[in-house]
Design a protein that fits this description.
125 residues, 5-stranded parallel β-sheet, 4 helices, 18% strand, globular
Length: 125
């Protein structure tokens, strides 16, 4: 079972995403901001991060920068879900992009693709 960290400050959306992921057999964790996400990333070793960009305290871009500097967690793929332009994410090495609003079917496809790429990469190394 893959573990997915959902980083989203809107409680209803976070709960909905977790429910959908758990219904598909994933284990879902939640964080409300980038600081909490970095802590959970180190403590719980998720297989994938679903990341909002606009959040309080530490936003998604600051999270991506901090994650890239930490050699213990920099390999964990991140799928960004945001209404921010994709061009703002260039250079951050994200594994996928979901433009809000998105369909839950699209979310599941992007998650499955990102996890499959991670598995393939691990098989090569």
């Amino acid at each position: 079972m893959s573990r997915i960290l959902v980083v989203e400050d809107e409680d209803i959306l976070a709960a909905t995403l977790c429910e959908v992921l758990e219904d598909e057999g994933y284990e879902a964790l939640t964080a409300r901001n980038g600081e909490d996400a970095l802590r959970l990333l180190a403590e719980r070793s998720p297989d994938l991060v679903l990341l909002d960009i606009m959040m309080p305290r530490m936003d998604g871009l600051a999270f991506l920068t901090a994650k890239a500097l930490d050699t213990k967690v920099q390999h964990v793929p991140v799928v960004v879900m945001t209404s921010v332009s994709r061009s703002a994410l260039q250079g951050h090495g994200v594994a996928g992009f979901l433009a809000k609003p998105f369909k839950l079917e699209t979310l599941l496809q992007v998650v499955a693709t990102a996890l499959a790429k991670r598995t393939a990469r691990e098989g090569e190394g």
